[in-house]
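Hey, I was hoping to borrow your eyes for a little while. There's a protein on my desk that I can't quite get my head around. The fold is given in discrete form, as structure tokens running alongside the sequence. I'd be grateful if you could look everything over and explain what you see. Here's the protein in full, and shout if anything looks odd to you:
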Amino acid sequence: MSTPIPVISATGLFTPADSISNEELVESFNAHVARFNAEHAAAIEAGTVLALSPSSVEFIEKASGIKARYVLSKAPILDPAIMAPRIPERPDTELSVLAEIAVKAARQALASAGRDPKDVDAVLCACSNLQRAYPAIAIEVQDALGVEGFGFDMNVACSSATFGIQTAADFIRAGHAKSVLVVNPEICSGHLNWQDRDSHFIFGDVATAILVESKDIAPPAHWDILGTRLKTQFSNNIRNNFGFLNRTAPEGIGQPDKLFRQEGRKVFKEVVPMVAEMIVAHMADLGLEPTGLRRLWLHQANANMNRLIAERVLGHEASPDESPTVLDTYANTSSAGSIIAFHLNSTDLAAGDTGLICSFGAGYSAGTVFLRKVA
């Protein structure tokens, strides 16, 4: 009996209604800076407190390439007295907000593939920002959709989606499932320190979904998975220390290290070569040449990082067609970023075209998924 061949049948995308432009964000942040510096003027003068520096649209766009971000809770983020999302808790009898946005993306993917939820064997929730420890968000999504079988959560930070794709593909190869739904709901605004000049602009909210299936049941238009590869290497350069054990140390709650933080220059210097070398090695093992790579759907974290990675892989500076970006309008959406890029920039490719979904992030973690379009 031949080994089943995993493919990507469809993807889905949920985008929040509200967006924050860099101009709006800078106005809010600078109002916070002015308030802080005025309130601590004496201490700043005495040298016991450091004055905060204002941000600017030019600084944000040069550092990241980001121009706007979608969010679920816009007004509180822009309020200088709050500067954080305010998403009310829901009773246990209601669908959680993370499951809700995952379901919306999942329904779009299922509809695109002409698939009924009862045809799906498993749901994997692969994302950075899980709303709770248990019950698993994946099982909640499974229940909301009416999927039978099983589900579980997994977190490998920004690489969660590619790790989820390989996990789903492995289930199919092993014969444990024929149709696996991978969802990536990311409410990144909740873990972002909106008062930190170096990172207050980085993240946005979104949800994506990927339907990974056995080729023998896939719709005529699908993507063959040529190969997947995963890599992790421990680093503290991107970290978030918040978790349920923080309740045992209440003095730590609300401290900056319980939110997203990173050593940006170190991340840039270490991750770019790691990811480029991983892509080139995987490509060689699959017998692929850079000239045959039609498109790169890279993790949407930083425009400069993507430019350098693409150049090292292709041997020349990539055009927007070769390496499309959604970073400018979506910002960094963690695990969902490369999937958004694929979802919005893949229908124009012809049968036989080859592309790469690649993620990288905290951990460090990285994942590559080489695809070839069918029909």
Q: What stands out?
A: DSSP finds eleven helices and 13 strands in the chain.
